[in-house]
Amino acid sequence: MTAIQGKYLTVLLLVSCFISGAMAQENPMQFLSRANAKVAKAAALKSKWEGPVEGPKLQKNKKIVFIASNMNDAGNYGIYTGIKEATVGTGWEVLLIDCRGLCQGAGIVNQALDMKANGIVLAGVDAASQAKGIAAAEKAKVPVVGWHANVKSGPVEGLFTNVTTNPKDGAQIAALYGVVESNTKSGIVLFTDSSSPYLTAKSNAIIEIIKQCDSCRLLSVEELPAYEVYKKMPALADALVKRHGAKWTHVIGVNDVYFDVMAKPEIAAILANNKLRGLSAGDGSASAYKRIRANSSQIGTVPEPLFQHGWQIVDELNRAFSGVAPSNYVTPVHLVTSQNIAYDGGPKNVFDPDNDFRERYQSYWAK
């Protein structure tokens, strides 16, 4: 048994007392086996390729409009970077529209159509908020691929496909690790952004886990949209310390942007002075990796393989251009802590799985 496996075995013995539902009604050893498998899988190395092994040859010279909810978000930036990387030398032109948190109801898809897009990517933008524009794209036979554009992965109404890991699974892993790290004695403040159904699904899953822990306290749920974090976080952090005092031990965010802002010296001092511990349910920013490695204000994150998702989006768009069904590939949940940060791209401060995904896609794109 490895040190990591042993750690999680101990961890799961602690949590078996507070998980409700069908699993809690099982024999304790059965529960332990199921729970251990889930957490160990999330923390395990991601060296095996489980994605598509065949697909159409990559078409050349396409114009893609990438619509980002907010390019200050590490997730949006990572996806855009992955798409740009995957399309080098292909003749694909990738144009950026940054909504800066204000995409909803703006008819932004119509703007992309006016730019003569062959394909459109909605990154962190709720597809339902763009229903009219998506309908216009469908009429124009311009495929729309989402990333976090819907809570569900795969083909959904209006989208050729939606690329995402399961937000509930990822958030539950994050909350589970946070509760256990505190030995079920945590006082938690949750930062969320209800402007996105995807992030709302994460926060609901986190709350569900915390409520199942009898000795944990959910002190407050703070609504703080990503586009307002840099402006409002300093005053809010100070107010929360004054409000909760020593009862506040842990911070959980629906993504890393909250901790990226908290790294500013004036906020970092507040966290350090109050010995607060942070945990994120995504998306794995470079600064999050640095904080976890230093074991300072952040102890873990549940990142998505952003570059790999960028490559997958290119593959999905190419399938749409070629009249081929989407791949339906869903990447598994991954948990990063100080114990496994040395693997899967961790030394470069990114979750970049060691599964040769670039070579896998290129092998059939070039046929």
Task: Please write out the topology.
Layout: H1 3-15, H2 28-43, E1 63-68, H3 74-86, E2 93-98, H4 108-114, E3 119-123, H5 131-139, E4 144-147, E5 154-156, E6 159-163, H6 167-181, E7 187-192, H7 197-211, E8 217-223, H8 229-244, E9 250-253, H9 257-262, H10 265-273, E10 277-280, H11 286-294, E11 298-301, H12 306-321, H13 357-365
Parallel strand pairs: 1-2, 1-3, 3-4, 4-6, 7-8, 7-9, 9-10, 10-11
Antiparallel strand pairs: 5-6
Helix pairs in contact: 1-2, 1-6, 3-12, 4-5, 6-7, 8-10, 12-13
Question: Can you put this structure into words, describing what you see?
Answer:
The protein has 367 residues and is an alpha/beta fold. It folds into 2 domains: 63-164 and 305-331, Rossmann fold; 167-301, Response regulator (Rossmann fold). The chain is 42% helix and 15% strand. It has helices at 3-15, 28-43, 74-86, 108-114, 131-139, 167-181, 197-211, 229-244, 257-262, 265-273, 286-294, 306-321, 357-365, and strands at 63-68, 93-98, 119-123, 144-147, 154-156, 159-163, 187-192, 217-223, 250-253, 277-280, 298-301. It has a 6-stranded mixed β-sheet, sandwiched between helices. Strands 8-7-9-10-11 form a 5-stranded parallel β-sheet. A hairpin with a 2-residue loop joins strand 5 (154-156) and strand 6 (159-163). The longest helix has 16 residues, at 28-43. The protein is globular and about 60 Å long. The termini are far apart. 48% of the residues are buried. Mean pLDDT is 87; it is low at 1-32.
